[in-house]
Records
---
Amino acid sequence: RKEVEQDPGPFNVPEGATVAFNCTYSNSASQSFFWYRQDCRKEPKLLMSVYSSGNEDGRFTAQLNRASQYISLLIRDSKLSDSATYLCVVGKAAGNKLTFGGGTRVLVKP
Amino acid sequence: DGGITQSPKYLFRKEGQNVTLSCEQNLNHDAMYWYRQDPGQGLRLIYYSQIVNDFQKGDIAEGYSVSREKKESFPLTVTSAQKNPTAFYLCASRGEGQNYGYTFGSGTRLTVV
């Protein structure tokens, strides 16, 4: 079983709609959780950290479920510019290496 | 502005050649990392360093070497022993604290010709 697993998609989303997807992780000792966004042929960029209580940044909402060992990302009012691959990233401790999921591809269409 | 600089952006290697990819950061981060990404695939860890003069192998270290003589610099050498080096190489650094993610450089795209 992979340490971090994601549905590769693609999720085809009409512009203005809401899309949500999950990521599961296998190591219960994981302490750090992030969502990154990667555009085609570019480097990944930090979208948001995921906190235990859940957090929101504009149209993006991230949730952490420690009991079931997954994190989620919800995008409201999808824009064409939200089309990208979203990477789930998990770490065990501060300063430690992070493990990446394979990414979920989202395509927002007019 | 603080950040990570990778060079070159594109690199072409002949069979049997060693090539070195540069990674420099001015974020004052102790930890630095090298990842490889193949088309349509996730990131795989090659090497990482948590402090100057120390580094560890990642999941796919064979055919690669690194050095960490300065805090700011973490160059990666792709040796002739790496049989399939064509890929997108990403360097990253990470600050202290579990809520810090990686900051990535813009990557080097290596092609064997």
---
Amino acid sequence: QKEVEQNSGPLSVPEGAIASLNCTYSDRGSQSFFWYRQYSGKSPELIMSIYSNGDKEDGRFTAQLNKASQYVSLLIRDSQPSDSATYLCAVNTGGSYIPTFGRGTSLIVHP
Amino acid sequence: DTAVSQTPKYLVTQMGNDKSIKCEQNLGHDTMYWYKQDSKKFLKIMFSYNNKELIINETVPNRFSPKSPDKAHLNLHINSLELGDSAVYFCASSRQDSNQPQHFGDGTRLSIL
């Protein structure tokens, strides 16, 4: 069974700090990895996708993928209170377009 | 110009009733999905549908059924509603490619009295 694990949190960081969110997955055949942000009462929105080992940066967000260790992480630099949300990790295995979602990590950025 | 739209946004109804939630996407995607998100925020896939196949999560009760009049629409019908059906239901769409992310609708909050 394909599993995607995230620490449910909440992860609390001060404004301006780096928030580090982690996700591990069980299927070694996984090929596509996504991070979604979900504000309370809203729908998930894509913030990052990553497909190969290493880092991918987009503004204050950096996704890191390590397929050998089967984890993907999301770093948020200069965290802002507006980053407070639940972050969902989603993983697609090769040949399947249906992602498996983790349970999400709640992030709280306090002023 | 909403990409994935679902109606209604809120649905309050009595146990035992039958209800439908509509979903439409204007992204030209060929695959649509229904998810259920419970109070603990776990996003659980219910159905995936494109013009070739319907994939059903086997844990979904057969009281739930998807109906797709065309590839831009995937409606969700629920018969004999139960208290445990209370949740937020999200429609999503994507291209049928494992490298493609999903685009979500705003959700329908279903409350069973």
